[in-house]
C-alpha cells in the first residue's frame, strides 16, 4: 500500500499538478496518517485481543483493505483531475469509548458559509499557515488575531478551521456569539474542544475517556481550570509524540463571550506557563477586538504572537475587497449600472473595512420600493463619515431610513426590541407567534412589514433560519443612543417578553407532552425523541420554558405578571415545565430559573405563598434533579412520592396524582436540614465563609486552593484560586463581597478579586509562621491576621503593606482573630488558652487577657452589637465574655464530646453556632445558653469552620471530611486477662466447641490457637494471610478453623495439624470482617466491607452464591441460625438483616439439575418484587417489568430487580423501575430479606398500586 503511494508521488504527472490538486494530496496525507495510527494501535493492543481469544484477523484485513481502497480512489481522482468527496474512514481498534453526556456547545463550531472568497486574504492566511507549520520547538503556541469590528477576523478564523479540516488535520473551532450569551458558552469551551479532538483522533479519544472514566463529574464541570488541566492538558501529555501533524484550536470572537467576568477564567489559562509549554505541534488561533481585559491578560506573554488586521496595508485590503465586491455584484440584472468603475468606487469608499463592503453590496442588490439600482448606488456613494458617526454607522442609518418609514418607527423599535432581547435567536414564525401573546393588541401585527427590507443587516429575513444581526457591529449600533438616534433600541425593560413567555406556559404546558410510552427508558433511549420534540414542543414553548424567568428578572415587579407566575409555580404546571426541560436536555436551567423567580417575588406580601412554593421547588430539584433529567417520566413516579409530606409542595401537588409508590416507613415530613454538600476539594476544608449577600460561599483547604461556591445551587463558581504553596487555613469575604482574603501555612496573606478569580497584587508577607486566621475590617480598609509566630498583624488592604508593629502578647499560636462591628477593636484567641482584645488604631492590648479556658482557644468572634465575645476551645467549652468589663458572663453547658474548633454568632446576635471535632454542628441561644434543637449530623470528620448566612437562615460548615455542608437553621432536625503473644492487635477470638481451645486472629497477620485452661499457645502460628485478620471461628466438630482478613480472602485451616487446607476462598473485593460455619459445618458464610455476603462449600472451597447486596455499609458481623436455614448480618449502616438461605439453595439445586447454562425464570413462578416487610406491598404488574426475563446467572434469578449504587432500581435489560433518593438508602428494606432490624426506622415501600412501564401515564388523575 505504502509503496504504491510512493511510486504515485514520484510520477512526473503528479509533480506537475501539485498546485491544482493540493486538496486531494492533503486527503491522501490524512489517510496515511490514519493508517500509521492504526498500525501503532494494533501493535499496542495485539496481546489484548489474544487474551480475549477473539479472532480479529478478518477484521484487521478489512481495515487494511479499506485504507487501500480509499488511497487507490484518491490517487485515481488525482489522475482524473476530479475531486470527488471521498470518505476517509478512521478505524478504532478498541471499543468505542463512550463520552456521551460531556458538555458540548452545539452550534459553536465551523461555519463554512463564512470562509474567505478564493484569492482574498492570501497574505494573512499564508502568515497564519506558516505559523501553524513552524517546526521550531520555541514557536509561539498562540496567535492573537485582533482588529476593529468589520475587519474580517471571523472569516479568516473559519477559513483556517476549514483548511485544517479539509487537509485531514486535527483541530477544533469554537465561536462565541453575542446572541448566544444565554448558553454560557464560556463554561463549555474546553469540554467542546476536547470532545472535538476526541472525535477526530483515536489516541486522544482513548486518553480523554480514561481521564473521564475516573471522574464522571468532569463531563459536565463548569470549572474551566479543571477542563484545561484534565480534559486537555492531561490527555495531550499522554499522546504527545503520537499525534501526527499539527493540532489547531480556533477560538473566534472571544470579545463576544459577554462581560469581562465571562473571560476572567479562560484568559489566565491562555496566558499561563502551561500554555507556553503546550506540545510543540499545538497551536491556538484566537480572534477578538482589542478589549482592555484581553490586552492586559496577554501583555508580556512570550508564547503569544499578535497579528493586527488594523495594520494590514490599505492597498492589500482594497485588493481583497475589490475581488469581493466584484463577486457580489456580478449579476446580469446589475451589469448595466454596476461596472468596473462603480466597483472601484465602492472599494475605495470601504476604507479597507470588509463589513462595510458587505453591507453596501447587500443594500445595492436588494430592490426597494420607489428606488432604482442607480439611486441605491448613489445613496451609498453619498455617505460621509464624521459628524459624530463612522461610515459604517452612516450606512446602517441609510439602510434603516430606506426600509422604515417614519410612521413605522414605533413598530420598528418594538420588533427590533423583541429580536435583540430574545436570549437565543428565533425564526420569524416563532417571533410572530410569541408576539400574539404581547399584552397590547396593537402589537399583534405581521412583523414582516418591518423586516422584509432589512436583509442587508439581518439574517433569517428571507428564509426559516433564526433572525439575528448579521454582524455584531449592527447590534452595537442599535443599542447606542448616540450612534443610532431615532433607531435606538433599549434592552433594559422586557415586560412584553415576560408576559408572552408566561402566557405561553399557561396555555401550552401539558402532561407527557412528547407521548412517552414507557417509564423504563432514559431520555437518551427513547426512539425518535428529537422528532417528538419537533412535533409536540413548538419553538416558542421551548424558548419560554428556558428563559421566562430571565426576562422576568429584567422586568419591574407587576402584580398582574405575578399572578401568572403564581398560576405556574402553584399548580401542576410546574411539573409539566420541568418535564419539558428534561426532554429537551435543558434541565440545568431549572434551579437558576426558580432562583431568579424567588428574587423577583421577594418582599411582596401578597405573593408569599408563591414564594414559598418556589423555595420548595428549588429544594425539590436539588433533591431529585438527577433522576428527572435522566428520565422525564420519573419526575412523576420517582420524585413525587418522596416529597416530604408536610411541605407546601406536597399538599398542592400530591392530590392530583395516584398510582405512585407509597413510603410506609422511613418517609420524611420536612426537607432535610443539610441542604447542600459541596464537593470538590481534595483535602480537609479548614475555613468557610458566606459572602455579604449570602449568594456565595468561600472555602479554604489543605489542597492549597481557595474555592468559591454558588450558595443556592451548590456548584463551584469558576476555577479554584491558586497561588498558596501550602494549606489554606482561613478565608473570608470583604464587606462589599468584592474581595476574598486568605491566610495559609505558607506564612502569607493573599487578597483575591472575587469576581475575576485572580490574585490582587503580591502576597502580604511578614509573618514567620503559619497564618491561621484572617479577618477584614467592616470598612474593608484593613486586614488582621493571626499566626503561630505568636503575633497579630494589621495590614492596609489597599496598599498591601503592614500597619505599625506586630501586636505581641500571646505566648503561643494565635488561632483566631476578628474585628469588632465598628472596626475599632480586634479579638484574638490563642493556644496559650487566653483571649485578648486589642485597640485597632493604637495597636495596643486593651486590659488584661481573658482567662478561663483550660485548653487552646480555637475560635473567637464579636456579637453583632460588639458587646460580647464568644470563644470556643479544645477544653470542649464555649465561653461568653463582656467586652467592656473583660469578665466571663457564662459558659455553655458541655454538649460537644470533642473540642470546640469554631464558633460564630448569627447576624442578629440571638444564636451562636459551634462546630466540633466530634463531627457535629450545634446551635445555642446566646442569651439563655440553651441548645436549640438537635446536633446537625452529617460530617464524617471534625468540623473546622462554621458561619451564618447574612439572613441567619443557613449555616455553612467545613470539615476534615473534605466537604462543605449547608444547613437549614430552622429545620435542624436529627434524628478477663489478655494473651500477650500476638505482636499486633487481637481482632477476633473464639472458643472451640468443647471449650478447651481458643483461636485468635490479629493485625500481625497470624492465626493462633491457645490452650484455654493453661493460657499457652498450641503449635505454631497459622501464617498465610497478607493483611490483618478480622474474624476467626471453629467448625462445629472443632477440626477446622476459618479466618477472614483484610487481604480480602477467607482461609480454612486444619486445627489439628496447624496447616492451611486448600487454596484461599477468593471473591470478595473488600476486607473480610466476619466468617462463620453453618451448624452442619458444610457451608461457610463471610461478610465483607464490599457490602456483600458470600456462601462457600466447605469441602470444595467453591462459592455457592453471593447474597444480594442490601446493606448500604460494610458488613461487620454474620451468623447462622441454629437450624442453618437463615443467616443474620450486621452492618455499619446500623441495620441487622436476616436471610432465608433455603430459598437460594433450592434455586441452585434446580439450576444444577437442569444442566442448562441459562436459568429457568419460570421454574419458581414470577419472582415477587417487594421492598417491604408486608408481602401485600409487592409490585403490581411485575410481569410487565420481567417480560422476556432470561437470567444468565443464579444471582439474577435470586434478585431480578435491585437497587444500584446510583440510586436506580433496575430490572432486566436495565429497565428503570424507580429512583430512590440517597436519604432513603440507609437503611433500606431489600426484597431478599426476611426481616430488617434498623437503628431507628427502615425505608419500606408499598408498590401494590404503583403504575409503571406502559401504564406510567395513568399516575395523573383525570379531571372530572
From TrEMBL:
InterPro entries noted in UniProt: NACHT_NTPase (IPR007111), NPHP3-like_N (IPR056884), P-loop_NTPase (IPR027417), Quinoprotein_ADH-like_sf (IPR011047), WD40/YVTN_repeat-like_dom_sf (IPR015943), WD40_PAC1 (IPR020472), WD40_repeat_CS (IPR019775), WD40_rpt (IPR001680)
CDD domains per record: WD40
Key words, A-Z: Repeat, WD repeat
PANTHER family in the record: F-BOX AND WD REPEAT DOMAIN CONTAINING 7, WD40 REPEAT PROTEIN
WD repeat residue intervals: 678-719, 721-762, 764-805, 807-848, 850-886, 893-929, 936-977, 979-1020, 1022-1063, 1065-1106, 1108-1149
SMART domains noted in UniProt: WD40
Domain NACHT residue range list: 141-289
Protein name (Swiss-Prot/TrEMBL): NACHT domain-containing protein
Highest taxon in the source lineage: Eukaryota
